[in-house]
Design a protein that fits this description.
Length: about 120
């Protein structure tokens, strides 16, 4: 049974930083690409960042240079370091893995950016 559990969200002021974590279980974590998505109220869920099994990364244009995705295969965990946060980054952040041709999602973690 695949499980993804996100943590690390919260309230941060504009310009601040947060580090999200997503712990995975039920899969051979090291061989799968992992993704972070976010969804703000009234918006579609959008891809924020991805990291391949080899560690290659890619980002949405809106977060390039400010967000960093990383993974620790010894802990079955993927991270999203978010710096210089802007109010428009406020959303529920989800991690994702596609396993056996099916998308799995965590419960999400809320990020609020406000002064």
């Amino acid at each position: 049974q695949v499980q993804l559990v996100e943590s690390g969200g919260g309230l941060v002021q504009p310009g601040g930083s947060l580090r999200l974590s997503c712990a995975a279980s039920g899969i051979i974590f090291s061989i799968y690409p992992m993704r972070w998505y976010r969804q703000a109220p009234g918006n579609q869920r959008e891809l924020v960042a991805l990291i391949t099994s080899e560690g290659a990364t890619d980002y949405a244009n809106s977060v390039k240079g400010r967000f960093t995705i990383s993974r620790d295969n010894t802990k079955n965990t993927v991270y999203l370091q978010m710096n210089t946060l802007k109010p428009e980054a406020a959303a529920v952040y989800y991690c994702n893995v596609n396993w056996s041709r099916r998308d799995y999602w965590g419960q999400g973690t809320q990020v609020t950016v406000s002064s």
